[in-house]
Write a structure and sequence with these properties.
alpha/beta; Purple Acid Phosphatase, chain A, domain 2; 5-stranded mixed β-sheet; 12 strands; 24% helix; globular; binds manganese (II) ion
Length: 215
């Protein structure tokens, strides 16, 4: 069997569910697991998630949560922080921080025209030219030429490919399907599901959250 690329949506500290999902997937030698960012925060076990990722050699994308925490590490100004950052700051070890430093903006697995990113891409600008700060946050955007005051639309609805983009960051009860993009943040930390997508076939594997971790 040829190796699989396994993309996993936002874990947000849900270590139990990540273990449940990995038990279903049973990765073997040669498979590559990619976490789509926002490994930490909101859920109960940010350290366990990062520890698992580094021990298993998972690749990871930079989420807006990791991006903010790393910015605080470089310049410890409390005004950078959100309230749920404090619990994570109390959990992460030096090894965890070193792993977060390896997270990348995008990843192109060598199994087809796919691009993985945490947030998304702005319309009208080549995706390779978009900054890390941008792509780990993109969600709702105004289409180029939209009238002043028009409602924003989700970036994925404007994405025309040709690459298929797998992304997280926009939680929903089900995967978010558009013509050339697939959103894999199925709101595990809010009591939804944790979703993996297997490339190149794009099969989905999901586990339910054990509970809702956000009041
Ligand atoms: Mn996010």
């Amino acid at each position: 069997m040829s190796s699989r690329w396994i993309a996993i949506g936002d874990v947000h500290g849900c270590a139990d569910e990540l273990e449940d999902l990995l038990a279903l997937l049973s990765p073997v030698e040669g498979d590559r697991v990619v976490l789509l960012g926002d490994l930490v925060n909101r859920g109960p076990a940010s350290h366990r998630v990062v520890q698992l990722a580094r021990r298993e050699g998972f690749l990871g994308l930079m989420g807006n949560h990791e991006h903010r925490l790393l910015a605080y590490r470089r310049d410890p100004r409390e005004d950078l922080l959100k309230r749920y950052d404090y619990a994570t700051l109390g959990q992460l070890t030096e090894e965890d921080w070193a792993y977060l430093g390896t997270l990348r903006a995008t990843l192109e697995p060598p199994v087809g025209p796919f691009v993985l990113v945490h947030g998304g891409f702005l319309p009208g600008i080549p995706w390779r030219e978009q900054s890390l700060e941008q792509v780990c946050r993109t969600k709702w955007v105004h289409p180029p030429g939209a009238p002043e005051g028009a409602d924003p639309v989700h970036w994925s609805d404007l994405w025309r490919g040709p690459e298929r983009v797998l992304y997280g960051h926009t939680p929903g009860p089900e995967v978010r399907v558009s013509a050339h993009a697939l959103g894999l943040d199925t709101a595990c930390v809010y009591g939804g599901k944790l979703t993996a997508c297997l490339l190149p076939g794009m099969e989905l594997v999901q586990v339910p959250a054990r509970r809702c971790y956000v009041a």
